[in-house]
């Protein structure tokens, strides 16, 4: 029993470290990848390659699920994808939304510093909650509504801090590092892209959760469906947004070891988080997100000439507080079983399942 308890604690600590690093490193890496000197890779191609890596990884995981038997893997794919065309076509909706979302996240990372990007993207909690209420008719606790208000106020404070006209009190300054071939910094565009990504994240997440209900299909098989259907949308996005550059420079223009690392981090990182997150409760996930925001702020000071102000600190503090408040269960104090928490619990479970599909 002691060994089991110790093993459980080790898994919790592993979850905390994994969630924190995934949340922090991805934002920092995307920002660096879009602002470093040298040839700038096309973000639309990176999104496509991430789906390819995710598809290959998910195929390997299903292969293991099927007892390392290639024939059973083929049968499972045929049964799930070919024999259920309507179910497969329904996946087109979240596939398209996720492709657009991931492209918007690259736009946001190109125009917002890593710390502001990390804080702003927490608005996905708000959009997911709103769509859960509107589409799934869930009821949120009063503490959760209060947390959403704090979240919006915190993000607004961060954005106002960085757009302040007073350079001495602004939360961030224009990046002083060499921009290479990167786009000219446009904070409004970056913030708008982050808002769009949060909106699509919430909509796709709740839609996908609704599909998962009653379906006896593993999350890895769902990832295969998502990636297969995402690839045509991703290639279409490449052609529409970057057709001229693709014709002139090729699909892998600007790729190097760092871009390959970024693609793998996007694809495999989410899958790893989906595995370990089941060992993390709401408090631990709150700690992980909060630590990620702090790490992003500290790292940005040294890597991107980021400058903290009181207003930014207060806004980030409100966001961190809202994360803990949203996951707080007042009924847990008495230790009694209540059903009013089921809505927020299922919302959290949906979020866990969807970590494998999100960036």
TrEMBL record:
InterPro entries: EmrE-like, Nuc_sug_transpt. GO terms for molecular function: pyrimidine nucleotide-sugar transmembrane transporter activity. Keywords: Membrane, Sugar transport, Transmembrane, Transmembrane helix, Transport. The keyword Membrane applies. It is a multi-pass membrane protein. Pfam families: Nuc_sug_transp. It is found in: Membrane. GO terms for cellular component: Golgi membrane. It comes from the Eukaryota. The chain crosses the membrane at residues 40-64, 119-136, 143-161, 188-208, 228-252, 258-277, 284-304, 310-328. Belongs to the nucleotide-sugar transporter family. SLC35A subfamily. This is UDP-N-acetylglucosamine transporter.
């Amino acid at each position: 029993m002691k060994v089991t308890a110790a093993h459980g604690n080790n898994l919790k600590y592993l979850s905390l470290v994994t969630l924190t690093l995934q949340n922090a490193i991805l934002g920092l890496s995307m920002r660096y990848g879009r602002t470093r000197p040298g040839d700038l890779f096309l973000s639309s191609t990176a999104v496509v390659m991430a789906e390819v890596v995710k598809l290959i990884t998910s195929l390997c995981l299903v292969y293991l699920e099927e007892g390392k038997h290639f024939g059973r893997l083929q049968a499972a794919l045929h049964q799930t994808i070919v024999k259920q065309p309507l179910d497969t076509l329904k996946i087109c909706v979240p596939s398209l939304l996720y492709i657009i979302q991931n492209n918007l996240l690259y736009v946001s990372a190109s125009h917002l510093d890593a710390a502001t990007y990390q804080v702003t993207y927490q608005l996905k909690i708000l959009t997911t909650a709103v769509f859960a209420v509107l589409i799934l008719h869930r009821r949120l606790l009063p503490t959760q509504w209060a947390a959403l208000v704090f979240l919006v106020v915190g993000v607004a404070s961060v954005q106002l801090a960085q757009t302040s006209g007073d350079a001495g009190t602004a939360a961030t300054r224009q990046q002083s590092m060499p921009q290479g071939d990167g786009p000219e910094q446009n904070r409004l565009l970056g913030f708008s892209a982050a808002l769009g990504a949060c909106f699509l994240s919430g909509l796709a997440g709740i839609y996908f959760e609704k599909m998962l209900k009653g379906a006896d299909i593993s999350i890895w098989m769902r990832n295969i469906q998502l990636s297969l259907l995402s690839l045509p949308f991703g290639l279409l996005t490449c052609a529409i947004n970057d057709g001229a550059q693709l014709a002139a420079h090729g699909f892998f223009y600007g790729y190097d070891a760092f871009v390959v690392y970024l693609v793998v981090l996007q694809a495999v990182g989410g899958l790893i988080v989906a595995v370990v997150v089941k060992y993390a409760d709401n408090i631990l996930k709150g700690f992980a997100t909060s630590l990620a925001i702090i790490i992003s702020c500290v790292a940005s000071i040294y890597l991107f000439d980021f400058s903290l102000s009181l207003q930014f600190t207060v806004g980030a503090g409100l966001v961190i507080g809202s994360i803990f408040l949203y996951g707080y269960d007042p009924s847990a104090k008495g230790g009694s079983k209540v059903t009013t928490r089921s809505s927020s619990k299922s919302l959290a479970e949906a979020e866990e399942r969807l970590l494998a599909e999100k960036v």
